[in-house]
Amino acid sequence: MQSSRVKGISCLVDTDIAIDFLRRREYARELLENWVGEGLLAISALTHLEIYQGMKAGEERATNAFLDGLVSVAVDIPIARRAGTMLGELHSKGMTLGIVDAVIAATALQFGAPLLTNNVERYPVADLKVIRGLEV
């Protein structure tokens, strides 16, 4: 799905929150239920990659059903450019960010949507609204 065509996204769900939902952690279920009332829940196509990388035998059906219920955003040219620029800017400041995290952050920024994650410290990105999913 082209990012320029997706409207009404309330938030972008990071991989850790999606995994906790699939592992039936109550806070993740409640969190996503609250956000779905605000609009569409979205994930990056790279979140699919990360989830499938760690999927265990017998989890495919539940995983597919969950992921199919979210808006999946492909990495298009504007997102790739934004992620690349972000990586370059952070590198010039002596900071590092993984490519997957940069693409996820760029996706959230592309839509002006907050990123739901428990890995707040992994996203030192200006203008990115990061919301911790689980109060620690």
Short description:
49% of the residues lie in helices and 14% in strands. By secondary structure, the protein is an alpha/beta fold.
Spell out the blueprint of helices and strands:
Blueprint: E1 9-13, H1 15-22, H2 26-36, E2 40-44, H3 45-54, H4 60-68, E3 71-73, H5 77-92, H6 99-111, E4 115-117, E5 130-132
Parallel strand pairs: 1-2, 1-4, 2-3, 4-5
Detailed description of the structure:
This protein is an alpha/beta fold and 136 residues long. Helices cover 49% and strands 14% of the residues. It has 6 helices and 5 strands; from the N terminus they run βααβααβααββ. The protein has helices at residues 15-22, 26-36, 45-54, 60-68, 77-92, 99-111, and strands spanning 9-13, 40-44, 71-73, 115-117, 130-132. It has a 5-stranded parallel beta sheet. α1 (15-22) packs across α2 and α5 crosses α6. The longest helix is centred in the middle third of the chain and has 16 residues, at 77-92. The protein is globular, with a radius of gyration of 14 Å. The N and C termini lie far apart (35 Å). 30% of the residues are buried. Residues 1-5 have low confidence and may be disordered.
